[in-house]
Design goal:
The protein is an all-alpha fold and 173 residues long. It has one domain (3-168). Helix content is 64%, strand content 0%. It has 9 helices and no strands.
Length: 173
């Protein structure tokens, strides 16, 4: 196991145990999570959106670090989950007036149909949203949090850990 994976695992374990700093601007839930999958299943969409909204932004994590992480993460999710991620990106981008066929051409995607997109296509779509529409990127991850467990970069894990510490709760008393 790499030090990056160990670091990420330690952050997630600390968060699951409620081992987090108490920070004034964070709502406290009092919930404990066994692991990231438990967090992704039991947390609400709004809670995830707040967490990811604070931490997943080009100002926090440079694109040069986020893009390779997205590529690795998207390659590891199941094909049906990847389709769901692509559908969510297209849905939100369409609400901004961006047509799926235009995005296909602009980003060099192999298809505008989410069911026919490969991992590279979904990565291009995610990277575009991260750069150009960070709020959409955050919203899609709140809807589809499974990608997050595959991010391994220590900077990404640290930023998420800090944000999660703000959000997830306080020390045990």
């Amino acid at each position: 196991m790499t030090s990056s994976e160990q670091y990420k695992r330690q952050i997630m374990n600390d968060l699951a145990q409620g081992d987090a700093e108490v920070l004034d601007d964070a709502p406290m839930t009092g919930q404990e999570y066994e692991n990231f999958d438990d967090f992704a299943q039991r947390s609400t969409h709004n809670e995830r959106r707040q967490l990811f909204g604070r931490s997943l932004h080009p100002d926090q994590i440079p694109s040069s670090q986020m893009e390779p992480e997205l590529q690795k993460a998207i390659a590891q999710i199941k094909p049906n989950e990847r389709d769901d991620v692509a559908k969510a990106f297209f849905k939100h981008l369409k609400q901004r007036g961006l047509n799926d066929r235009t995005l296909e051409q602009q980003l060099g995607l192999s298809s505008h149909n989410p069911n026919h997109m490969n991992a590279d296509d979904v990565t291009k779509l995610a990277s575009f949203a991260y750069h150009s529409h960070p709020d959409i990127f955050q919203e899609v991850l709140a809807e589809q949090p499974g990608i997050m467990k595959f991010l391994s970069n220590p900077v990404v894990a640290a930023v998420l850990g800090i944000a999660a510490a703000k959000w997830l709760g306080s020390h045990r008393k």
